[in-house]
Structures are given as structure tokens and as C-alpha cells.
Amino acid sequence: MNESSSKGHPCRILIVDDEPAIRRFLQTALADDCFAPVLAENGHAALAAAVAAKPEIVLLDLGLPDMDGVEVIARLRQWSQVPIIVLSVRDREADKVRALDAGADDYLTKPFGVGELLARIRVMLRRSLQQAPEPVIRIAELEIDLARRLVTVRGATVALTPTEYELLRLLATNAGKVLTHRQVLKQIWGTAYLEQPHVLRVNISNLRRKIEADASRPRYILTESGVGYRFRSDS
Question: Between the CA atoms of 43, 45, 51 and 52, what dihedral angle is there, to the nearest 10 degrees?
């Protein structure tokens, strides 16, 4: 596999971790898959490398010696939309939500498989290379025509409420990315609903009943327990 950016060079991936063994492990794994790793051992080095190297992806540990990884995310988001995948031993829901709400795009708990990490990277690259949403999103038997606001499953039109459609559109245009409950509530209902997650759960349940063959075993809208939702990214 030969990964390259839209500019033609091998995709640069910034690895931010204070443990030399993990940096070497990730450097080897990514180089073997034809990526171009860039290394940083702390938050300040990461911010400097993000400016100098202009990476296509950032892999970020949260437990850095000079600043918390969530602060690194917040500082990057002040000027950059580079995809950020958190790699951390912190497995509490609260830590995941904080990182994602700060602007991270995905979260993998250590230890993780190299295959899963590479798959998450490919999802982020597809999203970042996409200049604008496709006019029609097709995932398996589901089709979303953004221009016509038309949703079909196996060719049959699905009747959605305006809120259900906007919810589906938000998830589908961010396919592969974890969206936290608060992010979705803010986007769809506004800040007044940030503490009303039941509103989101009810609408997700209704939406699944309409687009999923089996709402109890969803194929499209996947739950990230205690964190939020991820829309299926493969076709």
C-alpha cells in the first residue's frame, strides 16, 4: 500500500508520545505501510512539529510531561483542522468525551492492534481529502441524496422528519468519526439541549427503526458506549 496526500508526497503522520518505545513502535509500523512518520516527545514539540511538518494526521497521547493532550488538541484547533486520533491508556468515558469535545476526531485505547489503527488512519485520510460532501452518499443499501434531501433503503424512499434527516446528514457526512453526544446535541438542537441526551437517544432510536434492517443490531449508526455515535465508513 502506498499512501500519499493530495500533494503527491507520502502522508506525514505526527506521532506524539513521551515513551520512546511507543514512538519507535509506531514509527516502524507506519513506515512499513509507506507513511512518513514525524516524532514529538511532548506537547510543545508537537505544536512546533505541526507547524513545521504540516502533517496529514496527528496521533496523540494524552499523558504528556509538559501539558495535557487535551490542551494540545485545543491549541491545534485554534488554527488547524488536521485530523487527530488520540492513542491513550485512559479508558474512562469522561476522558474520551473531553478529548473528542476538544476537537479530536477519533480515540483508540492502548493497547490496540496495528491493523485497527491503520484502518482508522485511512478513514481520516478519506475524509480530509474530500473537499465537499458527495451529492449522494451510498453505504451498503442506504443512499442519501444531499441535494434532494432524499433517503432511500434498497431503493425505497424513507420518510424522515426534518430533525431525523439533519441528524442522519450530520452523522453520514462525518462517517468514521466519533461524534460525542454534546457535539450532536449542539449541532442539531443548539446549546439549550446540551444536558438533554434523552432527546438524542429517542431520535437515534427512531432513525434506526427507519433505516436499519434490525434496529437492535445497527449496521449504519454505531454506538460508542457512553461517548456518542460513529457512522459506518465503508461502502
Answer: -160
- CA-CA distance, 162 to 203, in Å (whole number)? 11
Torsions phi, psi for 20 (to 5 deg): -55, -40
Report the pLDDT value the prediction gives residue 235, as an integer from 0 to 100.
58
Angle value at C-alpha 20, between 15 and 24, nearest 5 degrees:
60
Query: What confidence tens digit (pLDDT) does each residue in 172-198 have?
Result: 999 889 999 999 999 999 888 888 999
- Which amino acid does the sequence have at 197? P
CA separation, residue 108 to residues 119, 121, 135, 136 (Å)? 12, 11, 31, 30
Q: What is the pLDDT of residue 182?
A: 93
Q: What is the DSSP string of the chain?
A: ---B-TTSSBPEEEEE-S-HHHHHHHHHHHHHTT-EEEEESSHHHHHHHHHHH--SEEEE-SB-SSSBHHHHHHHHHTT----EEEEES---HHHHHHHHHHT-SEEEESS--HHHHHHHHHHHHHHHH-SS--SEEEETTEEEETTTTEEEETTEE----HHHHHHHHHHHTTTTSEEEHHHHHHHHT-GGGTT-HHHHHHHHHHHHHHH-SSTTS-SSEEEETTTEEEE----
CA dist list (Å): 33 to 22, 121, 147, 164, 204: 17, 11, 37, 39, 37
